[in-house]
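User:
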Amino acid sequence: MGCTGSKQATGGTEISSTTAVANPAAEAPVELGVDTKPTNEAAATPASSEPTTPVPAASETKPVEEAAAPVTEEAPKASEETPAPVETPAADDATPAPVAESSAAPEDEEELVPKYHIDEFGNKIDDVTGGRVWSYAYYRARKDAEFHAQERGRCFEASKKAFEEDRKKEAKELSEEGKSHGVKMEEANQRAVDEIIKPQNLETSEKIDLHGLLVAEAVKATKDFVKSVIATRGDSVEKLEIITGAGHHSDKAKGPVIKPAIITMCQEEGWKLVADEGNEGSFTLFLKDPAPAADAQ
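Assistant: Predicted structure:
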């Protein structure tokens, strides 16, 4: 993540427009066939001619282990409400599990948010990378989006295989499940965008900071911001500040990604964008005719 604020030395991180999709992890098999019901104690008690103490009801006693159907330590207690075992397909079937809401139980803040310090501009800066650090909700949302992206890819691959093997019904079901994961991925990424954009109060601001956004998110956020200002405050606002970051934390092989995307978008919209002198990660977008200056490069 980048570390530049408005008019400051830049070190912004640019995030690739394509969320990396890792190979989905193999799912742990569900242990089947464990008899979780308590055994019948009366049936296991040998007959005797001697008087015996009355046997309490099954709900008042612990189950007795029988040789034919032993109750293992892993079996849930009779008093616990547990769902029946779910039969899972063999690995070759590649049928995905039902769509999950998240990748796992939510990690706490220390596990997701990097260690940071506060710079002179009030930004949280990663102690290791020097990039910007965001809220726990931001990292939680990105992690959920990554999970659903992986599941989407897994479903589509399984759907393709099922179709090739003439399992048309299963292929369709897998395809629909993949689409469902895609929707959840987009929703999670939007939560991350909200964590970046909402605190900036763009309704009254004349500046937008795109650090922490993916390329497509940054382009959309900038376009929406500029058009909103033109529609509601165009008569009183002459220029806007667009902070893209310099791209110092982007992939070295690819270079900055958000910065050129914003320049291209402004050119397509016919907006006058000028690079700020002395700050390679900041631009001024003129809503009215600017004084002579070099165009953005």
